[in-house]
Amino acid sequence: MREINVLLTAVGRRTYLVDYFREALLPCGGKVYAANCLRDATGLMAADGFEIVPKSADDGYVDRLLELCRRWRISLLFSLHDWDAPVIARSRERFLDAGTVPVMADADVLSACLDKYATAREMKRIGVPVPWTTLSLDEAAEEMNSRGCEMVVKPRWGQGSVGLFKVGSGDELEWAFRLSDSIARRFASACPEIDAGEPQVVVQECVRGVEYGCDVVNDLGGRHRRSFVKRKMGMRAGETDAAESVELPELEALAAQVGRWSRHLGCMDSDWIVGEDGVPRLIELNPRFGGGYPFTHAAGANIVRACVDWARDVDDGAWCAGFRPGVRAFKEIGIHVCDASDYPQA
To answer: Which of 33, 92, 224, 281 is the most buried (most CB within 10 A)?
Structure first.
């Protein structure tokens, strides 16, 4: 039986993903390795092996990852951070030559997902509903005045709801736009993937309704397989904190369109609002395992296992046969204790 080893980059605190992969790899005796640029990352200590690596913006980052992929005989590489993935995707052929499949979208798709204005533009092009969206403060003010609606102001390239404001008046809109722009430009200065010459703030209509997350699943050939929806019941720092698995055919059909457009490999996290008119609108795409994935996993859709199975040329559907709607799950605060000798050293 072919051995499958997995590398999780920018692993951070995703210890649950390390555990999910270790369980999925049991049939083939594979191992889970982790890499991170910061030492205080519990995901490192949960893995079978780990390395501290340069930041993804550093020139030597890809070469370092390739060295690890060859040393550990990595079959599948998963990035768990938005700005880490495009760097890897641009060197996709180098990883494939090393025997490693980067389980992610192509670089141009990643760019469109991480740019919220480009996301809205691409979704409109393929017929997926999105909120009214602009980069212009004047256009946003005019739309707000003519329709009397609230607006959401946020960094065009942002994370974790940092710099996001909901506003209901022209004065609030202008204030939020200026502040969000200041925050967004800090993102731009720290991330070479962002074009600092472009407008940095996006303004969208605030849609009233129920928020959902959806994991869009493609196989390792980029073919859409399933989409799993959960109703968000609680949020913390921009990440889902409690959710319930549901079946929502209209949203699932739209998510399938997203999967066919992106042709990403593995899991893509997506955020939606079903408005008072009953129409699901896409809010955001996170092209990776997102913070809401554990709720899908708890409901019986084991996307981690699917990726491992597909790499082993197993495609029996067992990974999603147990999915059930109506499963509620809640995150809790835990603590990871390790011996000093196990802690990443300088």
So the answer is: 33
Is residue 53 within 8 Å of 64, Cβ to Cβ?
A: yes
| Burial zone of 276 (CB within 10 Å; 0-12 exposed, 13-18 middle, 19+ buried) | exposed
Question: Burial of 26 by CB count in 10 Å (0-12 exposed, 13-18 middle, 19+ buried)?
Answer: exposed
How many residues in the chain?
Answer: 346
What residues pair up with 205 in beta bridges, in sequence order?
A: 151
* Beta-bridge mates of residue 34: 8, 50
Provide the token pair at 210: 């129920």
This prediction has a pTM of: 0.94
Helix (H) or strand (E) holding 178: helix 170-190
In angstroms, the first-to-last Cα distance of the chain is: 38
Question: Which H or E run includes 275?
Answer: strand 266-275
Instruction: Give the pLDDT of residue 192.
Output: 74
Nearest to 115 by CA among 337, 287, 302: 287
Average pLDDT over the chain, rounded to an integer: 93
Residue range 94-125, pLDDT digits in tens = 999 999 999 999 999 999 999 999 999 999 99
